[in-house]
Amino acid sequence: MVQSFIITGFLGVGKTTMLTNTVKEHFSDKKVAIVVNEFGDIGIDGDILSNVYSEVLEISEGCICCQLAEEFESGVIEIMNKYNPEIIFVETSGASEPFPIFLSMQNLGISVEGVICVVDSKNLNSYKDNSTAQYQIGGSNIIVLNKTDLVDDKELEAVKQDVIKIKEEFNIKNTMTGKTVFNSYVINSAERGIVNKEVFEGIYKIDEIIGLANDYKHDNHTTEDSITQKVAYLKEDIVFNDVDEILNNIPDSVYRVKGIVKVKDVANPLVINYSFGNVSFDELDAYEEPSIMIFIGESIDNDVIELCSKFEYLNMPQFRVGK
Ligand SMILES: Nc1nc2c(ncn2[C@@H]2O[C@H](COP(=O)(O)OP(=O)(O)OP(=O)(O)O)[C@@H](O)[C@H]2O)c(=O)[nH]1
Ligand SMILES: [Mg+2]
Asked: Is this structure's pTM higher than 0.70?
């Protein structure tokens, strides 16, 4: 039977990093397939992951836990038929809830070994009131406190207590037995998404969860949350400093920026990864599309329009409206 893990967690917490680091290392002897769903209609993670894994399926333009259940399931079937993987890792979008995806995997007869929620130890405070983020923590059985390099022991302990509190609030019940489903969960710490192999050893209590499916009511949560995205393209003739200048002027409402840009003074295309004020860059081997930046946050529209008017080399297409 094909095994799977679902990797969830809010925007920019380090899910893709975990896939490119830990998962790659621990599963080098297995045939691994990756399914990735990104928030918004243009994906960047597929390009990053394709650099590391040969079998990557990217599902964009919507949320796999709401609008895209069918596309998700047929995508998983396609990847199984084509590649015959031993393990499938699903990276959910930062705005997805994990439980509907768990149900889809069960529907397909794929064993879910664990639902891993990656938590940004540095920034949990900024996003812990978001209902989707709470559901991600509540609906997982393995919690990875990531970015521990950015906090001290005291701050990490406070994050752990916040997670435990959210877990207690999300006392999800098995409708058949009345037992709490996510009673047994584990919390791990990680830097760069690097976690022990034991995390993947399968502790999901699948039998406890039978019966929940019938009762689970999943509204389209993306319409409730005010998270939106705006896409902008960059002019061709720019240098690294131009990009840096934009990143130094990101408004507070925007907590995530992803992008791929080509600049004159760097040989390879650069992947931009900005989350809650921290930026990193990685080089890609090839990228033929126009340079792009995607801004994600809450009620960001006016702020991003203003940003684009400040930097003439940043163009926002008029016809695009935030989702
Ligand atoms: N300092 C530090 N940065 C990290 C760590 N893990 C990830 N990052 C950085 O956090 C940013 C976001 O990482 P990703 O792995 O793309 O996060 P994600 O959860 O996949 O993001 P989305 O798919 O957009 O929701 C990148 O700049 C990473 O380099 C960590 O442990 N420490
Ligand atoms: Mg990602």
From this structure: yes
